[in-house]
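Hi there,

I know you've been waiting on this one. I reran it after we fixed the sequence typo, so this is the corrected version. Both the input and the resulting structure follow.
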Amino acid sequence: MPVDGSTLNKNNTGGLLQNLSALLPIGKTGEYGIILSGNGASGGFTNDPRNFVQVKIAILLPDHLGGYQMGTEQLISDPYINGTQSILVTDFNADGTPDIFMSAENEMPFILKPSIAYMSDGSGKYKKVTLADSVINHSAMLVFIDGKPTVVATAYPLDDTIAGRGTTNAIYTFENGAFKIQSTQYINGVASGTLGRFGANGELEMIRGDVVSGWNGKSWTAMNIVVYPFDGKDVNVSKPIQTIVPYLSTLPEYKDFPANIGGKGLTHTFQLWAIELNNDGHLDVLAGETMWSSANTNFPSALQVLINNGDGTFKDETARLNSTMSLNVEQIDYNPTFLDIDNSGIQTLFFGSQNFYATQRQSNYLILNDGSGQLHVGLHDEFQDLAKQATSFVNSQYQQQGFSTNPDVFFPKFIAVPQPNGDVNYVAIVNAGHWYDTAKTLWQDQNFLVNMPIAFNPTTDFKKNIVMSDRNHSTLMRTWAGNDSFYANNASTSSAHIDGGLGIDKSIYSSSIKNFAIKGTSANTFEVKTNSTLTSSKISDTLVNVERLVFTDSSLALDLAGNAGIAVKLIAAVFGKDAIANKNFVGIGLDLLDKGMSYDNLGTLALGAAGATTSDAIVSLLWRNVVGSVASAADKAPFIQLLDAGMSGGELVHLAADTVFNTNQVNLVGLAVTGIEYTPL
């Protein structure tokens, strides 16, 4: 239960306004624990201190058997905090062990409280530290300024008559054994913010969301994202660099939507995340947005994509780069996890949210970034079935104790837990309630945690065919298990690394092959570079697991250890080694193999095309093309016997094509460096 049972009353059922989670790295094993907490929901949206209730932090630790065990008492002695909307984990005190920072936030009721940190003490445990602030921090973001962990907080935009300003929009750093707290200028409105070296030359900029303007006597007429210069101590609000309209407010269908926060047609930007999306060396921004409405529960929510132009200003690329996330969902996670789970250098985005009365609008997501900034939904609809499994389990185990739950009422929050091998498992937070007392006067909400080891691995399990039509100047791109296409539009002027993953992948260039130098450097790796004949659009690509190159006048197959090698060996065995220069033959073979035809079946098809229909004709043909001489009756006899005993002609082609005689005559090793030309069908 997130709160102490003694605090339960008619206003406080023990539930949380926000169920938050964060991952806690366990040593250097690649395993993670889970931190759970949130902010209380007692007494409504008032400022009555009598309604304030502290909430607990809980820590789950992996049991090394695929499950989790409660480790709170093992790690900390006092689990009570002053509510939070941000759980931040990093090594603040530089002792090699991650610390936990929880910026205080309470909306039910609105009460100013100090933030809490749990600092590693060198013994494997954590010491609770109460900070010298007084806040209702709606947002607190962890950023790294010149490698130094920094917390950028945004105070709830309250009028002085409600709860006072407290510590305004603080920046927290850990210096000389303690947290340094620096207030920054109050900006009217403002519910979110982030800080980073967004400028062209690494200049610091502060970005704030929900900056209101245009008071008409009744309401604000604008609520925007604003980019400000930051001098290392404070923002300069008099000289904003850029004003950005939140994505939902740019869409005509929502211009009159009855949003509660801000007003009609205005978008609440509840979080801003600084993140490198398109790998061009400039920090970008993701904005969590909603038009939450009590009048219309089908309110829209969005994840806005703001790509840095390279000069500290941003272009809204949401429609192009995040077209697969629905807008018809509940508000997404306040405290998501962004993590490189495959050692690619590109972060995967995990959003887990508990939703109420909104099964079809649930907002649990696993979002993949291909490195160009284009986002792809890896998991979303799948949580519908997982929710049924999780709630069914809770009901089956705890109904006799009076607990019950229904995913149509309380849709679970799914916490992603990456594994050392790249798999992603989940823990579901299932909300269930029962009467706390025998008189049935106090209702208790409780969270049940259900382990769901689904072992989803994007590298092998995400099979969508990706078309990267615009590289967005990225120097680092990768895809997963589909048949993917990489175009060179807006290629970086610096060297780029592209990994196609599994599947049959193509890199496509809008120029002649004569303008490029192409060389295989190691297994599954090719370098493609423009040479001196091309004076514009310089390209220097390192391609890994990319099977095809396409130019305006030629195509190359690179997978000589895969389908291209099969096609070449088979053509030489059936039609003679000179036939591998026939680009049409190679193209036909590749097309059939890429579509799933087996080596043996393609061999049978090729024999038919060569007119070899009898056992004697098949053996004679293969011997001549592979060995290079006319087979005697004695030479042919054992192979004819194999065919007559049931071996198919295609199987014998396979056997002959893979012999060292054949691989040597086609120079398979040499082709692995140059590739083989083909004509696509």
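Quick highlight: The CA atoms of residues 132 and 490 lie 49 Å apart.

Best,
R. S.
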